[in-house]
Sequence to fold (166 residues):
Amino acid sequence: MLRCFCRVACGDSVCRSPQGAETLPLNMGKCKDILKVTKMKKAAIYTEAAPTPLGAYSQAIVAGDLVFTSGQLPIDPKTGNIVGDTIEGQTRQVLNNIGAILTKAGGSIDSTVKVTVFLKDLNDLQAMNKVYGEFFSPDSTARMVFQASRLPRDVKVIMDAVAYLK
Fold:
């Protein structure tokens, strides 16, 4: 993916700092300054501290300064078994798995900016929120919650996350 950076607003882009990015000078003719084209790097993340993916995908992808986790089930990475029969136990395991993946990527659970939650039963929202609050403060993440008619392995909750690498 190519992104354009410049030191002045040219009408086509907003100025941003390409910190840590590979850059090539490029004069587009529109700006009085030199524009830089950046090729964003993308890398797959795998850790034994989280469950092995159930299909042809990675546990997470790092793209630039962001980490995108795949949906995490409440699976114990050592045994491959579903953890807990309650929404509380399953939520805790899912968030532990996400934390392990983010740590491997160079972030942490605290660097999470967005979480998507899929619940088998929306009536479990309050109980899930209680455990979620053990990991995140009320103003630390954006979030969406959906009820899904059926989740893989008939679990009660699945989550994915987006985090910023500081």
